[in-house]
Write a structure and sequence with these properties.
Strand order of the largest sheet of chain A: 4-3-2-1-5-7-6
Radius of gyration of chain A: 17 Å
Largest sheet of chain A: 7 strands, antiparallel
Shape of chain A: globular
Structural class of chain A: alpha+beta
Distance between the termini of chain A: 32 Å
Number of strands of chain A: 7
Order of helices and strands of chain A: HEEEEHEHHHHEEHH
Helix content of chain A: 25-40%
Oligomer: homotetramer
């Protein structure tokens, strides 16, 4: 069932190593079918060059395996928490991509230093607070999702489709798994540029509201004029 | 019409991802036929691995589409402003290449720290002032071109064939689209070297006039003796 | 004899350049057959694109060549010292990978700054003290192994399967040569992230014990729930 | 004539882009036949993907073209000066490789921070003084060679087979063009590691004489025991 969804999740997972965002078994992509509430996700600990579309696992929003011969990603509860908390999203990606994870490990948001950032992220990409010891020892992966939702309690997840989890790595999302992968790749590139921007000018400030609005809104929303639509 | 121009613009656009200067739909190359005043340019928001020569759009210097089934790059008004202001150039490139964009985001010029720089750029590669809010909210892409012209009001665009746009990215130019791509690749490499030069010696100064002259002039102008011509 | 071991050692050596961990003749992988006490190892100074499975050398734990037409790696005595001192390990890798070697040259351990590190290394990856002049002029390669054992006298080599040798490079180990290569690749990636983490936040501290435990133990030991086993 | 020499020089030139040491037309390799005093060298300004073995130019030690339909590299006088001043060398390489050129632009030598360096370079890789204006305006390329010889007036060019030219780039040499290319690749890698070593530990000192001796001499000279000879 949901063969098309599984195929697209398989393809999105395979894009991660090709885009240089993961090595070995790191990272995972999921996508949800909102009609049935079923989520297709990478199995846990399988190397990308051995992954096949048949390995993709289907789970419901409570984490029960509905179809598949393998265990789903250990990060599945984080994905599910995001699907429950962000009802408009259709896909979620988790990576430990290089520069973005350095920001996460530094417990720092990525400031919006330029239009490359503003084209996709409408402001700083936030970093969650670290989980406390109880949250870590308890339902850790679910709590990782919860602290992301907490971080976005006063932000718009459609306008900032990604987050750094302190000490850990990156989660991005989008209307589909494919769009979430796209956002993960851009987040990594933006992190790389921000890293060097600060090395070149330690007193640099984020870009102003006018240029942030201009670039974000020329690609998103009713007045958008970028692309072919 | 202008099939040769469109073919060369197509090939120059395809060189951008191959040279590592762009990902996804970022960046664009155009070239002008000065006889007709027509400009061939990449369509807006098309991924490089889907781009074909038939997608290249022809516009006149006022931005009217003369031929093509797609909308031209949203950066077209910047290209046109450069063709109007720099009457000798034949091609323009826009990228968000990594190191160069870090300089742009840091609102800093790239100083001429060595002969790799001087072989192509006859002095520092300047960074524009940031656009003000009115310029951003108005004809933003055209104003981006205007601030580049302003930056070159007392510089020779033939001798310094590229610029950083503050908070944004890179524009380069040349006698053709191909030459502009070549300059974009060298600008990125020069930015990378300048970045590390400063990390290694925070009190380093730009190279002197004698060595700048030697390297630039052994490749350009009447006394050039580099290459086969 | 031990054709399977030699084949696996050959394949593990060939993985080093493919993973970007070595160039030219740098680096080497060995694996031990604990039943016979024989070690299969790369020959000294052979380039990877010329290496064949027949070039793999078999030595005993005293370093005597038991089979092979070439001299074993000059680092063989270090490998043997590790096999003698760490009786549970089955494979050893030596590299001069880029970021990890920078830490080694800086005479610094790699702090555990995030979960990418904790997934594989249960705490900081230590750096040995520099060898003294007598140790260098004497049985240098054996003494390199001895100082690694000294560094781990109060650490668990199964939980921290790698070390930096001061001024020199990296040794990792594992249950097999393949696992040791895997650990070498992760150590390099972790070093890269740690390097940038410090550049982004010079006052950052290692992660807490709770998150270190959570990530290490979800992949290792009796309570592990990562992967398919 | 000297077909074998031209073939090897062609192959060595082609190795430069493959090893990531040059882009476009940058860099060049030459090799000398000491019996005839003839030098085979890359032609000036030819792109690597268009270069053929027939394009290789033969010049004598005074720079006269003896064979070839193209002009020799504009850096030919530097190569010739090195062949005259270092009578034992058989090949010369010039690159603007990334990290090494950053050191050259920073006007800094590369300190010997580890055994990767010591395996090939018996001490710091020096940086020349900048040429003065008269030297630049005069026989610039020849003077570049002369200042290299001056830098090595009290050093052994066999033990330190490379140099940084201030504000410019890298020259390496060896018994053959192939060995010089090998040294150029190692010099770049060593520069990369040294760069990061300093970022990780700003008070780090070069390695001691004992470890420098050990590593250099286990690969070079009468007591060498690395490799198969």
């Amino acid at each position: 069932m949901l063969e098309e969804l599984k195929q697209s999740v398989y393809e999105s997972n395979m894009a991660l190593p090709r885009l240089g965002l993961v090595i070995f078994t790191w990272g995972n992509v999921s996508a949800i079918d909102r009609a049935t509430g079923l989520v297709a996700i990478k199995p846990s600990g399988v190397e990308y060059d051995e992954l096949t579309v048949d390995d993709i696992v289907l789970v419901d929003l409570d984490g029960n395996v509905v179809e598949g011969h393998l265990r789903p990603s250990s990060d599945t509860p984080t994905h599910l928490e995001l699907y429950r908390g962000f009802p408009e999203i259709g896909g979620v990606v988790h990576t430990h991509s290089n520069y973005a994870t350095a920001f996460a490990q530094a417990c720092r948001e990525i400031p919006a230093y330029g239009t490359t950032h503003a084209d996709t992220f409408y402001g700083a990409i936030p970093c969650t607070r670290p989980l406390d010891d109880e949250e870590i020892r308890g339902a850790y992966e679910k709590n990782t999702g919860t602290v992301i939702l907490e971080t976005f309690s006063e932000k718009d997840e459609a306008a900032i489709p990604g987050v750094l989890v302190a000490n850990h790595g990156v989660f991005t999302w989008g209307k589909s798994g494919k769009e979430a992968v796209h956002n993960a790749a851009i987040l990594e590139r933006v992190a790389e540029m921000a890293y060097r921007t600060e090395q070149l000018n330690s007193s640099i400030k984020p870009i102003g509201k006018a240029i942030l609005n201009k670039h974000y809104l020329r690609k998103h929303g009713k007045g958008a004029y970028y692309g072919q639509k």
